[in-house]
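Running this now, will post back.
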Amino acid sequence: MNFETLKPQVEAIITNSSLSKDEKLLDICKLLETNIEYYNWVGFYFKNGDKNELKLGPYVGAPTDHTIIPFGKGICGQVAVSNKNFVVPDVSAQDNYIACSITVKAEIVIPIFINGENIGQIDIDSNTPDPFTEADERFLEFVCEQVAVIL
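Update: finished.
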């Protein structure tokens, strides 16, 4: 998969004025999940108002019970606190991991910033062990920058 070919498609979704914000986010989830073989669950979490927790936004993949995640809990909750990318090559090696599915082997979470504030994140689960590279990080940072424009 060439991430460069997906960038214009992400931009096209973001600039499509006929779609609502949530429709755009869902379309981005679908685009990534469909085109990147090892992206098996793709979703967004956003800061839940003034609470120190994340709330599940649009996503594609298996249904999840984790619609609210307290800051500091799991990979997503840790990113909400650290403001840093978190790449987990092997979820079974993480003590503070919230298992969504037994098929998940790896996870990557990239924060979304608006004016320097971490307001959410994109979360991707993979059923493939250790699939994420620096190219995934750079591409997902690009996606998050694009998404920040519509939030």
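DSSP finds four helices and six strands in the chain. More later if anyone needs it.
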